[in-house]
Amino acid sequence: xxxxxxxxxxxxxxxxxxxxxxxxxxxxxxxxxxxxxxxxxxxxxxxxxxxxxxxxxxxxxxxxxxxxxxxxxxxxxxxxxxxxxxxxxxxxxxxxxxxxxxxxxxxxxxxxxxxxxxxxxxxxxxxxxxxxxxxxxxxxxxxxxxxxxxxxxxxxxxxxxxxxxxxxxxxxxxxxxxxxxxxxxxxxxxxxxxxxxxxxxxxxxxxxxxxxxxxxxxxxxxxxxxxxxxxxxxxxxxxxxxxxxxxxxxxxxxxxxxxxxxxxxxxxxxxxxxxxxxxxxxxxxxxxxxxxxx
Length: 294
What we know:
This protein is α/β, with parallel strands linked by helices and 294 residues long. 37% of the residues lie in helices and 18% in strands. It is globular, with a radius of gyration of 19 Å. 43% of the residues are buried.
């Protein structure tokens, strides 16, 4: 049956020692084997220690990091659902989404300890897991759980193309945010269609600095490039001068931005001397791109 639970596992079989990810905040580089082993570890501790089963939701409230990829690929192996939270929202807004989503596990970064503490009396979550310095008496340590888990592939439950993969919430500009269910078939076919439509290859390198709670960060280039065996350069957040430097140093080839980002790059001190000769193309989304930016 068609599903997307094996995307990273199969890529790790094909190109285990090829570099898959450079995480700029930590300076750590991961091969496909290492990424897949992390995803397996997460799936195994979520299932074995925290009781996550097929259909359960797991949420993360954190800045970009490899942990998003652990969860995105690891949860799919269990048939569980990746339900990231928008860190731009206030605690009151997040309470509504968490109560609608009802995750079994909430994982949070150190920047959001106070937000989670404000939310806790108003939400019903079975398990809290802290990243980095966020682990406290009432929250398990993500790093400890990861280190203690097996790297073996978890047993897959019955899956098909309609099995939910992600639950991504809309912005709620005209009302309450709504959870959009992204099934396995959509994740798989987005990889294939994007690769074919844009002519992506295993040699492509793309920077990701847009939030991974958003479809753009996850699906514009990240998942299609991992599908093909290319390389992702992941930033914790966007900084105009820093991302310009990274694009050049890592020789990125395909780049997603929005008009505001393009404007910020053009206004950055390093833009006039920037060398984009290795870039195949930029794509723009989110809003119409003014002609003067093109």
